[in-house]
Amino acid sequence: MDSFDLLFYDTVGTEFNPDSVKNKALGGSEFVLWQLADEFGKRGLRIMLWFGRGQARGEKICGNVVYRYGAATYPVNARHLFHHRYSDFAYEPQNRWGRRWFFCSDFWGNHYEEVLNTLKASLSGTICVSQWQASTFPCAGDCRILPNPIPAEAYESVEVPRDPNVFVYASAALKGLRSTLETWAAFRNKYPELRETRLRVLSPGYDDPSLAAAHEGVELVGAVPFPTLLDELRRAAGIFYVNDYPETFCIVAALAEACGARVHIWMRNGGAIRETVNSPLLTADGTQFESDFVKYYRSVGGQGCTEPHDFSTPHVVDRWRHELGI
Question: pTM here?
Answer without folding.
Answer: 0.91
